[in-house]
Amino acid sequence: MFTQLTDLPGCILGFEARGKFTAADYEAVLMPAMEAAVKMGPVRLLFVMPDGFHGMEMGALHDDLLFGLKHFRDFKKFAFVTDDETLAALTRNFAFMIPAETQVFALTERDRAVSWLEA
């Protein structure tokens, strides 16, 4: 499930993900927020993934791919906040494929991630 974070500066779009990602999450939460944010210019995205991620359903994986292709150049910065070392390593290893500055932060560094996105 995605939850849009509302405690962020106006220049940052943020989400927290828990449990299993579903296509409904993309359609109801992520996509409308992203469409609105893109109208304001390049997006600074904060994605927080605390413990409890249980994967993605196939429809969500499909939506994620389409979302990524549609908004490939719409990001300025991407901060991924997690303590999951596997996901953190994957993000670091594939950051070169993301056309935005990308950093990975631990959950305890969430405030630092927000500051980095603002800079």
TrEMBL record:
Pfam assignment, any one: SpoIIAA-like
Coiled-coil regions, chain positions: none
Entries under InterPro entries matching the protein: SpoIIAA-like, SpoIIAA-like_sf, STAS_dom_sf
Entry-linked Gene3D superfamilies: SpoIIaa-like domains
Superkingdom of this protein's organism: Bacteria
Name used for this protein in its record: SpoIIAA-like protein
Lineage: Bacteria, Pseudomonadati, Pseudomonadota, Alphaproteobacteria, Hyphomicrobiales
